[in-house]
Amino acid sequence: MKPEHENNSRVEIVARRPELVLRIDGREHAVMKFEAADNNFHLVIDQTVYRGSVFETPEATWVRFHGWRTFVVPRKIANARAGSSKNNLEVKADMPGTVVAVHVNEGDRVSDGDPIVTVESMKLQLTVNADRSGTIARVFLAAGATFDRGALLAAYRPANRPEEKS
Amino acid sequence: MFRKVLVANRGEIACRVLRTLRAQKISSVAIHHFVDRAAPHVAMADQALEIRNAIPSAAYLDAAAILEIAKANGVDAIHPGYGFLSENAGFAELVAKSGMTFIGPSADVMRLMGDKIRSREFAAKVGVPTSKSIVFAENENAARAAELGFPLLIKASAGGGGKGMKIVRNAGELEANVSLARGEASRYFGDGRVYAERLLERPRHIEVQILGDGKGNVIHLGERECSIQRRYQKIVEESPAPNLDPRLRQAILDAALTLARESKYENAGTIEFVVGEDGTFFFLEMNTRLQVEHPVTEMVTGIDLVLEQLKIASEKKLSIAQNDAKMSGSAIECRICAEEPEHNFRPATGVIGLLRLPEESSSLRIENGLREGQAVTSAFDSMLMKVVVHGSTREEARLAMLVALRRLVLLGVPTNIDYLVRVVVSDAFQNGNLHTGFIEENSEALAWPPLDQPHAAALAAVAALNDDAFRRLAIEIPEPWATIGAFRN
Q1: Kind of pairing between the strands at A90-92 and B47-50
Q2: Taking a contact as any Cβ pair under 8 Å apart, which residues of chain A between 44 and 83 contact chain B?
Q3: Pick from B351, B354, B461: which is nearest to A43 by CB?
Q4: Cα–Cα distance between A157 and A88 in angstroms, integer?
Q5: Which parts of chain B register pLDDT below 70?
Q6: DSSP state letter for B442
Q7: CB environment B5-16: b (16+ within 10 A), e (fewer)
Q8: What is the pLDDT of residues B465-478, one digit of tens each?
Q9: B198 contacts B293 by C-beta, under 8 angstroms
Q10: How do residues A117-148 score in pLDDT, each as one tens digit?
């Protein structure tokens, strides 16, 4: 997980038949098999078998070779981030600041683009808007409160998701 | 026995306590902050109530809110776990005043042991070895320091960073070194005062698990070796301590029993000692609560410490005698933390993306309070879970730990799992050559090993082929339609 080992390899397809040949950092490698299911992979490359677990985030691919070590490979080209993530229930502060105004109450329904809170950081006022419709579950800070970077400001439930246990 | 217990904690320790409550068919109440609403401890408890606070950790420290929940829900005892309110004497008193039982020692003992100076004075008074120092008056003859025993460390009163520090190995070297230290202290700090203290070389951190009934009846459940530490926090613990002279072990256990007995300690507690290579040992501190590493003791004794805590708190007596506490085999615990060992163990954050735990058995416990999808933030401690193994010998336990760590899959947050594997396979660990400088002394053996070329290629291939777009291009699209593509990862 050391950043120096976050490989920045270039992988190119050299041939697809009779077998897949990849050029990885200038060297050719024959891939006999690649299967991935249920976050497990089975790779046969250069006549060597590798098995492990794999997990992709929009930013990186996490690979654990079974019984061995874990690596993080950044995904620069893969899946440019499309919209915000489905789990984005929490409105967080990107930098420290002060709450100027809270525009919603818990239980309020909001539509995409509706203002939730206005905050002031570095003498700039910024209004955080809902990025989809939903219901306000929690407001954590009131007007006048100060907060640190990463602090939770509010949380809301998207309209198309069932209620979570709370 | 209690009918309903509130667990004033979160994470793995809340789950640990809840497990015993379940097994005893005692109703349980969990508390949680909004960010933990889907955490396993919330799901495990019979009832779970949210405590509102802008700061997540503050919810678990909100004594008034916890008491209100406890009273409103007919709770008769509160288990504090470790951390948070576990060593807060004021909270223990409030619980008692509200007519409930605090599962832990009395507030008086917590206050005594929670104060470093008072607890050391108390230990010295009852004959438990403590670290002493002698402060020299200006121009005082240094010979008096010989009574502390050798080797000695001479330090500048105003100093720091090792400046003016001298090691003295015998009485003959004393006077000359004290003069040198005084000279350096004057030059560096403008203050020539120095003091002497006993130097423990390659010290080990060894602690003793104690149970007491509050009336002076105490037993020990053996010792735990906790020397492998980073940032002054333990990461690997075991019981029994390897390569410990049996007479020294007995002396340490006896000292712990004396301290517990004399303080009329009630419930479970841990007495920590620092032990020198030469067999000298000193009382360090007492933790008046369940320790993170308590499972290694449970593994070698077969005793459920949480159950004993409940029994002592409800019946005010010990349910086991010293002779019933038999130790068998060897147990090791590794703490899995969200951190980057390669960057001086700095804490890491992220979301638990994939979590695959090895199957638990009588010789393998996974103390976990996490689930997939849960965010690991800086709001709480970086410890994620603990892996605890038991073997009939230390070597058997060591190999079991290696297998367990290698089977553990936790992706999405940087962890110390691979680092712990390197600790467990290191010669120094294998030989039981442990002291608090272990991590520094073995830094080369514990460093991240370079990735060989075949694995580097396999890694790049997995990352590329696991990407849907690239895989379609490489494998799934019929030849005539495919264009030769490239993927940079």
Answers
A1: unpaired
A2: 45-46, 48, 50, 52-57, 61-79
A3: B461
A4: 9
A5: 160-161, 477-489
A6: T
A7: bbbbbbbbbbbb
A8: 999 888 888 887 55
A9: no
A10: 888 877 677 888 887 888 888 888 888 888 87
Distance CA(B308)–CA(A106), nearest Å, equals 44
- What residues contact residue B62 under an 8 Å CB cut-off, 6+ apart? B51, B53
Active site residue B356: no
Between residues A97 and A81, the one the model is more confident about: A97
Strand pairing report for B4-7 and B77-79: parallel
**Beta bridge partners of residue A127, listed in sequence order:** A118
Portion 78-137 of A in contact with B at CB < 8 A = 78-79, 87, 137
A87 confidence band (pLDDT: 50, 70, 90): very low
Buried b (16+ CB within 10 A) or exposed e, A108-145: eebeeebebbbbeeeeeebebebbbebbbbbbbbeeee
Tracing tokens 């805590």 back to the chain, one arrives at: B309
Contact between B418 and A57 using a beta-carbon 8 Å cutoff:
no
Instruction: State the angle between helix axes of B305-315 and B11-23 in degrees (0 to 180), rounded to the nearest 10.
Output: 70
Please answer whether residues B205 and B272 qualify as being in contact, where contact means their C-beta atoms are separated by less than 8 angstroms: yes
Q: Is A8 on the interface with B (CB under 8 A)?
A: yes
Q: What are the C-alpha distances in Å from B285 to residues B248, B277, B373, B435?
A: 19, 20, 38, 18
Q: Quick one: pLDDT at residue A90?
A: 76
Contacting residues for B411 by C-beta, under 8 A, at least 6 apart: A53, A54, A55, A62, A64, A70, B353, B354, B355
Which of B50, B41, B46 is closest to B17 using CA atoms?
Answer: B41
Beta strand pairing call for B4-7 and B27-32: parallel
Q: How far is B487 from chain A (nearest CA, A)?
A: 5
Yes or no: say if B76 and B184 are a contact pair by the CB < 8 Å rule.
no
Q: Are B240 and B225 in contact (CB under 8 A)?
A: yes
The CA distance from B52 to B235, in Å, is: 32
What is the spatial order of strands in the sheet that A134-139 belongs to? A90-92, A152-158, A134-139, A109-110
Query: Residue B374 is which amino acid?
Result: Q
Q: Do the chains contact at A45 and B484, CB–CB below 8 Å?
A: no
Q: Structure tokens of B122?
A: 């108390």
Q: Say yes or no: B447 contacts chain A, CB-CB below 8 A.
A: no
**B335: how many CB neighbours lie within 10 A of its CB?**
22
Q: If 0-12 CB within 10 Å is exposed, 13-18 middle and 19+ buried, where does residue B475 land?
A: middle
Is B28 in contact with B15 (CB distance < 8 Å)?
Answer: no
Distances (CA, A) of B174 to B166, B168, B171, B201: 10, 6, 5, 18
Other C-beta atoms lying within 10 Å of the C-beta of residue A30:
15
